[in-house]
Amino acid sequence: MNPVVALNSNMLMPFAPMLVLSITVVVAMIAIAIKRSNFIAGTISVIGLNAALFLLLAQMFGYFSPAQGFISSLFIVDSFAQFNMVIILISALACFTLAYGYIEGYDDHKEELYLLMLIATLGGMLMVCSDHLASFFISLELLSIPMYGMLAYTYARGKSLEAGLKYLVLSATASATMLMGMALIYAFTGSLAFRSIGMGVIGGLQQGLSQPMLVVGAAMVLFGVAFKLSAVPFHTWTPDVYQGAPAPIATFLGSVAKVAMLALGLRFLLTTATLAIPAIDTVIVVIASLSMIVGNMLALRQTNIKRMLSYSSIAHLGYVLAVVSAVKDQSVGFTSLYMAVYAFTTIGAFGVMTIMSSPYKMHGEAEDIEHYRGIFWKRPILTAVMTVMLLSLAGVPLTAGFISKFFAIFATVSAQNWWLAAMIILGSAISLYYYLHFMLVMFKRPQEIQSHDAVNHWGIQAGGIMVMLVTAAVLYFGIFPEWLSKIITLVHIY
């Protein structure tokens, strides 16, 4: 048994951003109990997120010490965790700004949505720091449980309620599978700590011992992670949930949740050394290959933008898993770079959709491709934003998406894994078709009656300013990629 470690303020310093966010949740609860106000609840949430972000950045630049370290045996704060927490907090801020304008016209209670998003964000931050199977499961559920309510928040829309219920049932099944896998790993290694498990796995591999219980347990955890990441063949829930979810929540699911889940899964695979097991590596190669091909092929025939982007997300997860399988321990920087760029482009694409949408109009959200026909002639700046995001997702040069995809191909080629490199190139070529198709629709002759449109002053609102800033960042890092390339060398796991 591990000895009980007394925690002091110095040891908790690396945990300060999470503590700030926890305090924000409590303050927001008290504010809602005193007076219901969309403005007050939204403002408190954004202030808390900004405070946590600034504190985290200050720690990373050496203004507070210690900035990194172990917190008991459950959590670890290293450069990998800090970088992913920055991405999570920035993505959450973007989702909050989009949600504020989106939910403003809602006749029912609006304030609880901010609470759910804050708790889910806190869960995501804890996930990237987890170094123990207990913290793995608890932090994952802290993210997942609020998601059920967030997805079904606009329950008057049947699709929203369906999305929440479907995610609840299937996610609970995935969590149960992971819990059983963790039990099998504990039965084999006698430990729940990632590093202790890793020592047991390496020892078994060196001695050439048969490890069927460990392989099955690791595979069950991997399947649960693959479900949360919507990788093939665990992807069937994704298009329905994305389509039914309110637009800002779909943005949250595609950015915050994906970044947190992949970071946790990667830390588990590398720290426990389960990625070194040939059977597990083979499973990841199969999942990555299927995700790249199936995701892109299914996206080709979609006319619903949410469903198209959901299938696109499946393909992008395939690219990331290909890098993980190809370069193993060296994949930390590459995957962190890829997921950061993907999160920002997802925010931009869904941000445009959110600005164009409202679930409280009779005709619902602007999610069909025909809703964007000829939008260029009325909203040229909004069209430019969406165009840049689609080009970045496709990996076209002069966008940040090109840099991330270039490094993904570079990593697989360097490892001489020609199959995965070919799959990334083929998948990217297929995706270019449906991204360009959507772009062409936006530049066609407009319809006489347009059922969806952004408000006249969308550009001076918080959500509008945010999507334009994201666009500027995607273009800047695409033209000047030096900062992105530094991520590969600076981000690492202890």
Characterize the structure shown.
- It contains 19 helices and two strands.
- It has one domain (14-490).
- The model is unreliable at 1-5 (pLDDT under 50).
- It is globular, with a radius of gyration of 22 Å.
- A two-stranded antiparallel ribbon has the order 1-2.
- It is an all-alpha fold.
- Helix 4 runs antiparallel to helix 18 (462-479), helix 6 (133-151) runs antiparallel to helix 7 and helix 14 crosses helix 19 (482-490).
> Mean pLDDT, nearest integer?
87
How many E strands?
2
Shape: globular
Strand proportion, as a percent range, falls in under 5%
* Widest sheet: strand ordering: 1-2
The total count of helices amounts to 19
Oligomerization category of the chains in this entry: single chain
Structural class: mainly alpha
Q: Approximately how much helix is present in the residues?
A: over 70%
The largest β sheet comes out as: 2 strands, antiparallel
Element-level helix/strand string: HHHEEHHHHHHHHHHHHHHHH
What count of structural domains?
A: 1
The Cα radius of gyration reads 22 Å
In whole angstroms, how far apart are the ends?
A: 23 Å
Low-confidence stretches: 1-5
Features of this protein?
2 strands; single chain; disordered N terminus; mainly alpha
Topology (SSEs and partners):
Layout: H1 9-12, H2 16-34, H3 38-60, E1 69-71, E2 75-77, H4 79-103, H5 112-129, H6 133-151, H7 158-189, H8 194-206, H9 212-228, H10 238-244, H11 247-271, H12 278-299, H13 305-327, H14 331-356, H15 380-394, H16 400-414, H17 418-442, H18 462-479, H19 482-490
Antiparallel strand pairs: 1-2
Helix pairs in contact: 2-3, 2-5, 3-4, 4-5, 4-11, 4-14, 4-18, 5-6, 5-11, 6-7, 6-11, 7-9, 7-10, 9-12, 10-13, 11-14, 12-13, 12-17, 13-14, 13-16, 13-17, 14-15, 14-16, 14-18, 14-19, 15-17, 15-18, 16-17, 16-18
